[in-house]
Amino acid sequence: MSFLLECPRCGSRPVDEFAYFGEVTRRPKGSASLRELTEYVYFRDNVAGVQREWWQHRTGCGEWFLAERDTRTNEVLAIHLPQPERAQAGGAE
Amino acid sequence: MRLPPQPRERIDRSQRILFTFDGKVVGGYAGDTIGSALFAHGQRIFSRSFKYHRPRGLLCCSGHCPNCLMTVDGVPNVRVCVEPIRDGAVVEPQNVWGSLERDVLSITDKIGGPFTPVGFYYRTMIRPRRLWPVYEKVLRNLAGLGRLRKDGAGHTRYDVEHRRARVLVVGGGEAGRAAALAAAALGPDVVLVDETADLVGHELEGVEVLAPARALGIWEGGLVPVVAGSVLHRFRAERIVVAAGALDQPLVFPGNDLVGVMLPGGVRRLVRDFAIAPGSRAVVIAAGEEDLEIAGELREVGVAVPEVVDLTSTPARRIEAHGRKGRVAAVSVDGRKVDCDLVVASAGRQPAYSLLAQAGARVEYDESRGIFVPTNLPAGVEAVGSVTGEDCVTVDPVRTTKGAGGDKCFVCVCEDVTTKDIARAIDEGFDSIELAKRYTTVTMGPCQGKLCQLASIRLYAQATGVGEAAVGTTTARPPWAPVELGVLAGRHFEPARRTSVHFRHEEAGARMMWAGPWKRPYAYGERPEDEVRAVHDSLGVIDVSTLGKILVEGPEAADLLERLYPNRFGDLRPGRIRYGVLTSDAGRIMDDGTVARLADDLYYVTTTSTGADSVTAWFEWWNAVWGYDAEIVNVTGALAALNLAGPRAREALGRLVDDPDVVSAESFRYLDAKALVVAGVPCLALRIGFVGELGYELHFPSPAGEHVWDRLVAEGARPFGLEPQRVLRLEKGHIIVGQDTDSESNLLSAGMQWLPKMDKDDFVGKLALEHFAERPERERLVGFRMEEDVLPVEGAQIVVEGRPAGRVTSARRSEAVGGVIGLAWLPPDRAEEGTRFEVRVDRRLVGARVAHGPFYDPAGERMRA
Amino acid sequence: MREIFFPKRMWRPRGDLKRRYDVVIVGGGSHGLATAYYLAKHHGVKDVCILERSYIGSGASGRNTTIIRANYRTPEGAAFYRESVRLYERLSSELDFNLMFSQHGHLTLAHSDRGLVVAQERAEVNKLLGIRSEVIGPDRIRELCPELDLSDKPAYPILGALYHPPGGIIRHDAVVWAYARGADRLGVEIHPYTEVTGFERSGDRIVAVETTRGRVECGQVVSATAGWSSLVGKLAGLRLPITTHILQAFVTEPLKPFLDVIIVSSQLHVYVSQTDRGEFLIGAEIEPYTTYKSTGTLSFLEYSARHALELFPQLEKTKVLRTWTGLCDLSPDYSPILGKTEIENFHVSAGWGTYGFKAAPIVGVTLAELVATQKTPALIAPFALERFYTDTLVSELAAAAVSH
User: Fold this and answer.
1) Which of C55, C120, C398 sits opposite B435 (nearest CB)?
2) Which terminus of chain A has a smaller tally of CB atoms within 10 A, N or C?
3) Does the beta-carbon distance from A37 to B767 stay under 8 Å?
C-alpha cells in the first residue's frame, strides 16, 4: 500500500483502491493528421512535477475524478470531478 | 552456570526447558532465549563467518548481528539470541564444514587473505569460459548461510490486521514510554511497539503495548506494518513517534571479531535478563558514560575488570585483541597486554535513524558528536529520545586501527569486510560510499548496516579526505529488520470465480480450467469431438455465464454507444441484436460482444469473459469525459447465461416455455432479443450463432442457474465445454479477441472492413481507422486449411524464405469440415483465397491454403434456421 | 589475475570537463557506458564524455533483477536480444572482468491454457531464429526445478512452461564497472555527479550541453537515461512516448543453493532467482501509476511474498532483507526506442520498461555504430522513435489492454 488519494466521495483512501487512467490528454476533434493522432495516442508529457491525471475509485464507490499530483513526491494537491465535454458545450441538444 | 538471582532477570528458574543443540541435550529456563541458554550451557562459538569461516560468538544479543544465526527446527538463519527457548527444539549450527569448533574452511582465513581480497571473484575464473559453471558451483556452495529444506512446506498460520491509531510509538525505552503516556493523557488509541520482551506484562495506563513486535518501516501515508509473532498489524497512524533509540557501534581493531569481544548492550542483556556472567575477566573499552558503566555492573556480579579505557577522554590508542582458538585471550592497549576472556568494546552509540530516513527525513552528520542525526522530519512523524541524537556520541571507530598489524580488522562482520578491503576498494576507484557498498558488500549482509555503516563511512571519509558529511549515508531501505515472507504474505486467498452452475459441471465430470479469473469446463469427457457432434447433430448446452454483461440505460444511451462503437447502434430496433467490436483511439481491437437493444433507452451489452470489468471501466471513463445521460451497470455476476445450441434447440426450448409459438422461427428470428419465461424463470433470450447452429443464449438471475441447466439437460441438451466451443466457432471462422487478435490488430486487417461506419461524426478509433484505410496493410487475418492432417500449435510460425512472416492463432481438427482448419495472420500479398503458404510444425514446413469465409455452413443457413 | 595482487585503478578520478567533445553521452548506466566503450573500441571515437548525475550505475543498471534472456515474442525483439545474449556470453572475457554470467536456464510458467498458447508462440518465433526455447510439461519442469510446487494445490496450478536454456543471471554492477573501466582505458571521460541541466539548440542540432559543472560543446549527443528519458528529452525539445513507473524488488537473507533456474510467472506477476551469494531475488511488475518518487510500497512486498510462496512454499520462513525501487521508462508497445530522433545529432536509448539491462551490450554496439557512421544498423531499425509517428509498432504485448 502506498500513498493516500482523496476520493471526492469517500475521502482519503490507500492508492491500491484506485485505478489510474493516465495523464489528461487532448483528443483531436473532427480530423487529425497522422502526426496529430499519434501525438495524442502515444506521446506523453510524463512530467516530473504536477500532473493532471485520471483516477477511478475502482474498489470503492467507483467515482471517476481528476487529481493534480506531484509526481516527484506523490503528493496530491487537488482533486476535482470532471467537467464533461457536453456540459461545457452547453448540455445536450 | 548462572549468577544468583538478578533483580530484573527474565528467566523463571522453576521451569526447566530442554532442547537439543548439535545432537546434544541442552537445558535452560523459561524466559531464556535459545542463545542465552546455550551461552549459560558453556557454548561460546555460535557460528562461522560468511567468508573466512572464523569462529564467532554473541556480539549484540539484540537480534541485529549475524553472529548467532543457526538453524532451528529446520528453519535456517534464526537469530538464536532473541529466539525464545522452547521444549524439544532442534538447534543446529549452519555454514560449517565440520563442526563449529573445527571448521575445515577456516583455512580460507589463514591463507585466503592475499588470494581473496575484496572483489577477487571479478578478477579470476574468467577463462576458459566453459569452466565458469564449475567454479560457480563451488562459489555457490561456499556462499549462503543456512540450508533450506527442500520439502519443508510451511504450515504456519499467518494473519493480517488492519489497524488505526491516533498515536503510534515505536520503541519502548524511557523516551518512548514517556511519549506514549503523554499521548494517552490527551486521548485514546495510543499504541506502543517494542521489539524486546522487556515490556511484556507491564501496564502503561491508557496505552496498548505490542511486544515483542517490530515496526518494519514507515511507508507513504503513515503506514507502519508491525510484526508481532505471526501477525502483521498494518497501522495507519495520525501521529508516529519514533523512539527507536541508538545502536552500539563496534570498534574496529585487529581481532575485533574474536569470540568474547562483545558490545556493551549485549553484555548487559546477558547479565540483567538472563543472570549470566559473560566472562570472568573483562576489559572495557568504551565511549560515553552509559557504556562505561558496564564495568561497574560486571564487577557487581563478580567479574574482574582489570582495565577500563575511556575513549572519549584519552587520545588515539592502539588496541589489539589476541586470540586462542578463535576466542579472545588478551587485549593490548598501547602495547600493554592484559589477559582477559571478555572485551566489552564500543565506539559509542549512533541513533537508529533508519525508520525516520525511510519516512523521508534527511540524515546529517554532526561533526561534534561523530554521529548521523535525522533532521527535517516529514509531517506527522516525530522523534524522541536517543534516536534524535540525544545522549549519543561516538568516537572514531576506526582510529584504533592505525598502525595495526597482526589480525584482521573487521568493519563488517556480516560480510567479513576488513579495513584493508575498504582501503583497496578506494584505491581501485570505488570512491563513493554507494559504489563501495556494492563492490565490497559492506552493509549488505544480515545486519543491513546497523553495525557497520558508521565505521565504513568514517573509513571512507578519512581515506578520501572529503569528510563524513560529504560521504553521506547509503539509502535507508525497508524493512528495518529481516521479516519472514510468510508474515508479509498473510493468509492465502486466491479467489477463483465460479459460475452458478459450477457444481453441475463438476458432478458431470468436467475437466475444469482457468479462463481469465474464472474456472470453466474444458470438456466433459475425453472426447471433445463428441460434444461438437452433439451440437451439430442434435442439441448442446454451454455455460457462458462468464460473459461480461453490462446494462446501458438512459435517454442518451444510444448516443453513448454510437460513440463508443465503430458500428451503429442508434438505428438498432428494440428487440434486435448486433455484433459490436470495441476499438481504442489508436484503432486497435480491444473487445467484442453482442449489443441487444431492449428498449429505446436500454441496451444489454455482452463482452468477452475477461473483458467485463475493463469494458465497464472503459464505458464509464468515456462517459466521464463526454457526459451523456446514461447509466452503466455491470451485471456480470448477477446473471447466469446458458447457450442452448443445435438443430433441436427450438423444439427443446418450446417445451420449456408456456407457449411454444413465442419461439417459432417467425416470431423469434435470428438476432432477436426476447423476454421469455423458461422453466418458470424470467430470461432474456438472445438468438445468436457463435457456434454456428440454431441457438439461444438465455440470460437470467444467477440463483436459478442450476434449475435452468437441469431442465435443459433433461430436454436432451448435452453439456459441452470450452474446447468443443472453440472448434465450433472456428468452423464458422468467428474470432476470439485476445487470441486471434493482439494489441496491434485493427478492424481492417482483421477482415472486418464492413463493420466501422465511417460516416459517423465521431467514435473511439475513427481517426485511426481513417489513417489505416490510407496506409498499406502490414498483415491480414485469414482462415486456412492444412494440406495434410497435421495440427500446428497455436503460435506456429508461417515461414517465407526461412524467416517468420506470420503466425497461426487458432487451429483445430474439424470432423464436420474434414481436416485441419485455422486462423492466421499473413502478409497481405499472400492473403488471397487459395494462396499456398508454409507453416512450421515440429521442425518441418507443412503446406496450407488460405480459405476465406466460414468453413462450415458458409451461407449461415443453419444458425438462421 | 595480476590485479588481485597488484590492484590497479578501475578508472581515472574525475577530471575537469573539456570545452568540447565529439560525443556527449547523458547517463552513466550500462547503456551509456557500453556505447562509449564500443565507440572507442570499434570505431576509434575516443573524444567521448559520459555525464552522470550520480554515481555510475546508480539508476536502473544497478536496480534490475539481472535476468538475461532472448525469448521475446516479436521476431524483431527476439533477434535483437539474441545478439545481446551472444555478446553477454563473451563479455567477461572481452572486458577481462568476471561478470558471473550464469546460464542456468529460464522458465516462464504457464498456469492457464491461454498462458501456454502465448508460450508456444514465443517458442515458435524463437526456434525459427535459432534461439533455444521450447514449451515443456510438468514432468520436465520437475526435472529442472524439483523445488517448485507442481501439485494441484496452488490456486493456479502449473500446466507447463516456456524453457529457455541460455537464460541466466549476471552480476549487474560488474557489467557497469567493467564497461566503465574498458571505456576509461580507451580514453573516454567519465564524469559522475555531473547533471545535465539543458541543451543549446541551433535549428535541428544540439550545439552544447549545459551541466551543473558548466557548458560543453558537442558533436553528437546520446541520451541513455531510462526513467528520466522524458525529462532529458524535454530539455532537448523532444517529446517521447514514454511514461515513468516504479519497479520494485527484494532480496532475502543468503541461503545455501536451493534454486538454480530462474522462475518467472506472468500470471502471478513474480520472478524468483537465487544469486551466487545465496540470496533469493524476487521481483514483480511495475506499479500502474506514473511517478518519479522511488519509494517502495508495502503492497508490493505483500503480493510478491504471497505469489513467491505459491511457487515455493518452502520459503515461508525465509526473511526479506532489503527492498529497493527503480524507475522504468515504459513505451506503448513494450519495445525500446532506439536510435535517431528528429533532432539531427540527438540519439536515444529509451522506452525499455523492464528489459533495458538485458540489452546493454547490443545497445552499445548498435548505438556506437549509428553515432560513428550515421547509419542505423538493421537490427535496431524497427525500434526507431519514428515508428510512433508512423504508427508502425513492434508489440511485445500479446493482447490489447483497455487503456488509452
Assistant:
1) C55
2) C
3) yes
- Grid cell for residue B267: 553484555
Q: Give the domain ranges of chain C.
A: 20-64+173-242+332-399, 106-165, 243-330
Give φ, ψ of B280 to 5 degrees.
-115, -25
Residues 13-42 of A with CB under 8 A from B: 14, 19, 21, 27-28, 31-32, 34, 37, 40-42
Residue with cell 543446529: B92
The whole-angstrom separation of Cα C315 and Cα B562 is: 53
Tell me the C-alpha distance between C66 and C187, whole Å: 28
Write down the CATH superfamily of domain A4-88.
Folate-binding superfamily (3.30.2270.10)
Q: Which three cell numbers mark B709? A: 441447466
Assess contact for B735 and B746: CB atoms under 8 A. no
C20-64+173-242+332-399 and C106-165 share one fold: no
Q: Of A19, A25, A74, which is closest to C291 when you measure between CB atoms?
A: A74
Chain C residues in contact with A2 (beta carbon < 8 A): 287, 295, 297-299
Name the residue ranges covered by the structural domains of chain A: 4-88
Measured between beta carbons, the chain B residues lying within 8 angstroms of C97 are: 122-123, 126
Dihedral (CA of B314, B318, B324, B325) sign = positive
Q: Can you tell me the distance from the alpha carbon of B195 to that of B82, in angstroms, rounded to the nearest whole number? A: 10
Tell me the CATH number of domain C106-165, given options 3.30.9.10, 1.10.8.100, 3.60.20.10, 3.40.50.880. 3.30.9.10
Task: Please report the number of interchain residue pairs, chain A to chain B, with beta-carbon separation below 8 angstroms.
Answer: 59
Q: Which of B290-304, B549-563, C19-33, C145-159 has the lowest mean pLDDT?
A: C145-159
> What are chain C's partners, defined as 3 or more CB pairs within 8 angstroms?
A, B
Query: Do residues C263 and C145 touch, judged by C-beta distance below 8 A?
Result: yes
B767 contacts A82? CB cut-off 8 A = no
Residue in A28, A56, A84 closest to B627 by CB: A84
- pTM equals 0.96
Q: What is the pLDDT of residue B2?
A: 95
pLDDT at A93 over 50: no
Q: What is the DSSP letter of B376?
A: S
How far apart, in whole angstroms, are the C-alpha atoms of residue B459 and residue B472?
A: 12
Dist CA C64 CA C67 (whole Å): 8
Q: How far is B121 from chain C (nearest CA, A)?
A: 7
Q: Residue B585 and residue A40: Cβ atoms within 8 Å?
A: yes
Backbone phi, then psi, for B561, in 5-degree steps? -70, -35
- Spatial neighbors of C190 by CB under 8 A, at least 6 apart, are C11, C12, C14, C28, C33, C49, C50, C52, C56, C180, C183, C184
To the nearest 10 degrees (0 to 180), the angle between helices C172-185 and C75-95 is: 70
CB contact under 8 A, B625 and A82: yes
Residue of A nearest to C241 (CA): A43
B116-136 confidence digits (pLDDT tens): 788 888 988 998 989 999 999
Greatest C-alpha distance within chain B = 113
Q: Which residue has the cell 424463470?
A: B681
Residue C5, all three cell numbers: 595482487
Compute the count of residue pairs across chains A and C with CB atoms less than 8 Å apart: 77
Query: At the fourth CATH level, which superfamily is domain C243-330?
Result: D-Amino Acid Oxidase, subunit A, domain 2 (3.30.9.10)
pLDDT at B225: 97
Asked if B76 and B133 touch (Cβ cutoff 8 Å), the reply is no
Cell numbers standing for residue B184: 494517552
Q: How far is CA C395 from CA B508, B588, C297, C341, C375, in A?
A: 41, 12, 29, 20, 24
Length of chain C: 404
Low-confidence winner among B418-427, B816-825, C47-56, C81-90 (lowest mean pLDDT):
B418-427
